[in-house]
Design brief:
Helices cover about 75% and strands about 0% of the residues. By secondary structure, the chain is an all-alpha fold. It has a domain of about 140 residues. Helix 11 packs antiparallel against helix 14 and helix 13 packs antiparallel against helix 14. It is extended and about 95 Å long.
Length: about 425
């Protein structure tokens, strides 16, 4: 028999017993891992932290979505509260002064609001009567204006138009019928906007009243949840905000009075009707609509003056431009130096940013808000003495670069035709 490599002592299949090679499977290599299906089949489990992490992530996403939805739904209310807060800051000095003389803060706040309401109602009434009078005057003079326009067209273009034909064509035109239909359909929208505006005004008034009347209680409630060091900072910021907002309002009110009186004198001298109301209009609009308020306010007096004499409108425009320069460079720096001391470029940028964020409301509260922030940060910014350098004052002196060009030209000119500099 041929020799074999098998162990003669090892059992064989012929003996009826399984061999070791067939009974014992080969062990897997140490670096090899079973597949995931094998691991699951062998009883592998999900980590305990994974379900909690998934639930927490879903809860955070749901909370973010709910908060975003609630913020968008409450944006109008938040803006009203912001307006009310700044209005309360503006009247805080007057209320505190009246309360210091023994009057209750609620009664003092009510008296201040009553005075503001009376002034506002009187101004709206006078302005409404002026506009109504002008509209009636324009309607009564419309036939004469139309006759003069038709005569000019006939003389210029050699036509034969008549006022009766023009009126009949206007009354039976399609665009007029569509305009009336659209106007009738928009009556409900206008009514809804008016009611919404009244409700918003009432909301702002109520919140302003509560903020001003319960100002000390509100400050105590806010400070009760803060440590003593933070309480001092909050109270300081509150005081700065009151000073800046109140100072801004009172300085604007004084400039509005001066502007109104100046424009009233001009309009009264030219015989323009409704001169007192127009003066009040120019004073308020020019001061409480930043940057372009003066030109917007001057449009109405120019229109009324044009009905009297076209040249009067030109004189009003010239006066508005000159007064704007006088106010910007002489009057405003002196009145706002101690109340709202911010650079004109910063004020303009804040107005633009406030308008982009909150519209007209942002334009009104941007300047006092920036002035408050500037004053609050200025208390924590360390300042140093400025070195005495000519460049600080806006001109160059004799620095390291030697004498200036003008000095060298003078020396060359004094040196004679040879062009040599004199020592």
């Amino acid at each position: 028999m041929a020799p074999t490599d098998e162990d003669p002592l090892a059992p064989t299949a012929e003996d009826g017993e399984p061999s070791d090679r067939q009974a014992t499977p080969a062990a897997p290599a140490p670096h090899c891992r079973p597949p995931l299906s094998d691991a699951v089949a062998q009883g592998g489990r999900m980590p305990r932290w994974l379900p909690r992490a998934m639930v927490l992530a879903l809860a955070l996403i749901a909370s973010f979505q709910l908060g975003s939805w609630a913020f968008h739904q409450l944006t109008g209310l938040l803006i009203n509260i912001l307006i009310a807060f700044f209005l309360a800051l503006a009247i805080e000095p007057a209320v505190s002064r009246m309360a210091a003389h023994g009057m209750r803060r609620g009664l003092a706040t009510f008296l201040v609001f009553l005075g503001l309401a009376v002034v506002t109602a009187g101004f709206i009434t006078l302005l409404g009567s002026m506009l109504a009078g002008q509209i009636i005057k324009m309607i009564e003079g419309f036939p004469d204006y139309l006759d003069s326009l038709i005569n000019w067209i006939n003389e210029t273009f050699h036509t034969h138009l008549k006022r009766v034909d023009v009126q009949e064509g206007l009354l039976h035109s399609d665009w007029l019928r569509k305009y009336v239909q659209n106007s009738a359909a928009g009556v409900l929208d206008v009514s809804a906007q008016v009611l919404g505006g009244l409700f918003r005004l009432l909301t702002v008034g109520l919140f302003s009243f509560y903020f001003a009347a319960d100002g000390p209680r509100l400050r105590r409630a806010l400070c009760s949840v803060l440590p003593p060091a933070r309480q001092a900072e909050v109270l300081r910021a509150w005081e700065i905000a009151v000073d800046k907002t109140g100072g801004y309002l009172y300085s604007r009110g004084l400039m509005a009075l001066i502007s109104g009186v100046a424009h009233y004198i001009l309009l009264e001298a030219m015989g323009v009707p409704y001169a007192p109301v127009l003066g009040v209009w120019v004073g308020l609009v020019s001061q409480f609509i930043p940057t372009i308020g003066t030109y917007l306010a001057g449009a109405l007096p120019m229109l009324i003056a044009f009905t009297v004499n076209p040249w009067y409108a030109v004189w009003v425009l010239v006066f508005v431009v000159i007064y704007q320069q006088f106010e910007n460079y002489v009057l405003q720096p002196k009145l706002t130096a101690k109340t709202v001391d911010i650079h004109p470029a910063v004020a303009f940028g804040s107005v633009v940013a406030g308008t982009a964020l909150l519209g007209a409301v942002g334009a009104l509260i941007a300047i006092p808000a920036v002035a408050t922030l500037q004053a609050f940060l200025g208390a924590y910014v360390k300042r140093y003495a400025v070195t005495d350098d000519p460049r600080v004052h806006g001109h160059r002196g004799r620095g390291r670069g030697g004498p200036g060009m003008l000095t060298r030209v003078r020396r060359l000119w004094a040196g004679g035709p040879g062009g040599r500099e004199q020592p």
